[in-house]
Amino acid sequence: MSRARLLVAPALGGGLVRELERIGGRPAERAAADAEPGGGPYLYVGAALPDRLRTPDLLWFHSVNAGTDPLLAAGPWPAGALLTRTVGRMGERIAQYVLAWILAECQRVPEFTAQHSRSQWRRLPSELAAGQTALVYGVGRVGGTVAALLRGCGIRTVGVARTARTGPPPPGFDRVIGADEDGEALRDARWVVTALPLTGATAGFFGAERFAALRGASFVNVGRGATVDLAALEAALRGGSVRRAVLDVLLAEPASPGDPVWALPRTVVTSHSAGITADEDVVADFAACWEAVAAGRRPELAVDVERGY
User: Fold this and answer.
1) pTM of the predicted model, to two decimals?
2) The one catalytic residue among 253, 280, 291, 300
3) Of the listed 93, 190, 224, 244, which one is catalytic?
4) Residues 6+ apart with CB under 8 A from 150
5) Residue 272 catalytic?
6) Is residue 253 among the annotated active site residues?
C-alpha cells in the first residue's frame, strides 16, 4: 500500500480529492472511465469501478456509496482486492426519514394537506406511535440506527436478520428474529421498515406471501428496490393488507413520468434521498478504513464480496 497510486473518479469534487490526498499522503490522479490505469498497484475511490480498472493491480476500491450491489453485479471482482464502502451518518439520515413518515402518518399529515388544498376544516383523529410495533429488516448499522430512533419514541422494535440470533439483541432492538420465522411478527407489525441490501437471497424478498401476512401495516423501503415485488405490493395495497407505502428506492431509477409506480394507491415515492452521502461522510469513512489497512486490520466497512454486504 505504501507505493500504491491513488486514483479517483473524475466526478469527485476538488475539496474531497484534497482530503483524500491528505489522508493517503500522496497525490491523486483522476482516472477517466476509458483510461488505462498504467503500471503498478493502485487504489481507487469513486461510485463505480470502470472495467479497465478491474485488474490484478487493484489493491483496494473505496465506494463513495453505501450500496455495493451494482459494483458486484457489473462483473467479476478482482481477486484479492479490498472493497470498502461509505456509510457515514447515513443511518441517522435514514432514521429521521423513517420517523418523519411514521409521525406524519400518525398525525394524519397527508389527509390534512389534502383538506387544506380544498379549504376544508374537519377534525381527524390522530394515532400514538408509542406502544406499537415496527418490524425492521436489516440489523446492521443503518437498521440499528433506525430502530434506536423509533425505540426512543416508545415504538417496540423487532429486528429481522438473515438468521436467528442468540443472546442480547443488538442496540436499538427489543428482540431479533430470523427471516424464516417472521410470519407472526408480520401480523403484529404496525410498520414494516426494510433496510435490506440486494443479494441473491433478498431479490424479490417482499412478495405476495409476506405482504398477505400483514394486517394493515404501513411499508417503508429504504434499502433496495429489487427486494420488493411491486405487483405484489400493489395487490396488497388494493386489498388492504398494506395500509400505506413509502418507497425511497425502486427497481429502475429514476422513475419515468409514465412508470406504473406513480399510480400505486396510498403510496409516496421519494427520489432515493433518504440517506444521501455527503463529502464529509466519504472523508471520515475513508480515513477510518485507511487507518485500519495501515495497521494490518480488516476495516469495519469492508464488504464480503461473496455475500454482497
Assistant:
1) 0.89
2) 253
3) 224
4) 95, 98, 99, 102, 129, 134, 136, 157, 193
5) yes
6) yes
